[in-house]
Design a protein that fits this description.
By secondary structure, the protein is mainly beta. It is built from no helices and 11 strands. The chain has strands at residues 3-7, 10-12, 18-25, 34-39, 46-51, 58-60, 68-73, 78-83, 92-98, 101-102, 106-110. Strands 2, 4, 5, 6, 9, 10 and 11 form a 7-stranded mixed beta sheet that branches.
Length: 112
């Protein structure tokens, strides 16, 4: 079955960086576009970044452009989200996604 397992969240000060990882199994990872979403309690889940199967094409929410970078390693079945210049507003649970499948989420808290 499809599994998506995120890691790398934590507490960071404003202006800091974190790298999230999502390791996938149960499908042909190298053929799948992958997404990162985030959600704050009481709000809808927001699409943060998308990467095509080969890793060439990426897309970002306006709120993270220039600060976040999505990447993938198809040999490791892993997609990453490098988050730089973090802001308090980036605080959320971050989820890895492929079609209807979701990981369990990893909490990112940006606070001083």
């Amino acid at each position: 079955q499809v599994q998506l397992v995120e890691s790398g969240g934590g507490l960071v000060q404003p202006g800091g960086s974190l790298r999230l990882s999502c390791t996938a199994s149960g499908f042909t990872f190298s053929s799948a576009a992958m997404n990162w979403y985030r959600q704050v309690p009481g709000k809808e889940r927001e699409l943060v970044a998308t990467i095509t199967s080969g890793g060439v094409g990426t897309n970002y929410a306006d709120s993270v452009k220039g600060r976040f970078r999505i990447a993938r390693d198809n040999a490791k079945n892993t997609v990453y989200l490098q988050m730089n210049k973090l802001k308090v507003d980036d605080t959320a649970v971050y989820y890895c996604n492929r079609r209807t499948y979701w990981g369990q989420g990893t909490q990112v808290t940006v606070a001083s």
